[in-house]
Request: fold
Amino acid sequence: MLCEGDDQVLQLEQFDSMGFAEHYKATKRYEDVKKLIKDAVMIEHLFNKIIIHDFHEYKYLFPKGKITLYFHGSKLRGMDETELSQVREYPCIVSTPDLLDILPEALYLPVPVDLELFGAEQFGDDTIKEAWICMNRKHDQDIIEPIIKAKYPKAEYLPRTKDTQIDYEDMPMFLSQYTDYVDWKFTYDKPLPLTINATSCTGLQALAVGCRVWDHNGIKLSRNLLVIHDKKRIQKMFRKELE
Reply:
C-alpha cells in the first residue's frame, strides 16, 4: 500500500474475489466503475480485468492524466500484443523488475513494506520453536504444494483464499509465530506453473518481522532488501513521479 496521510483507498467490489478490501480495510467500496472513477483523484491500481475484458466499454472514462496502471505480474505476463497495446496507452507501474521486459517504458517501484508495522524489534521472539510456513494460492495447490514440500518438507502450506485472508494489521503477529518463511512465487502457466524469480510482498513482510526467508533456490534472503523496499522510500519515489 502506497497510501499515506489523507489518501483514500477506493475498492471496486466485483474484482475483489480475494477480499483485499477487508484485508486492507479499504475506505470505500464501489459496485460501479463509473462512480469510482468519478470520485477518485487518481487511480493508482486498476484491476487489469477491466482493461482486458471491458476496455471497449470503459475506455472513454479513463482520462490519461488520471489513470496509472499498477501491475504485480500474473495478468501482465499472460497478455497478448493486443492487450498490451491497450495497456501501453497509460502510464504503468510494475512491482518486480522482470516485468520491465514486457513493459520497458513502465516505472519500476519495488513492493513497499511498512517497517513501522512489520518491525522485527516489536514482534521478533528468539524463544519461538522452529516453525515453517509458505503462503500460496489455493488454485493449483495440488501441483504447487508438492514442489515446495520436496525442497522444504517442514513448511506448512497455507492456501490463500478469501476465507483464509488475514487482516493487514494482524499480519505481523501472525507471521511472528514462525521462524522461517518460504517465498516461492509461480506463474499461472498450464499445465505446469513456472517459478517466478521475484520476492513477494508477504515474503518481505516476514523478513521485516524477523523470520528467516528462503527462496526457490534454497537461498536465505538478506535483510538488506528491506532498505530497498521501505514504504517511506517508495512513497517518495512515487510522489516524485507524480510531480
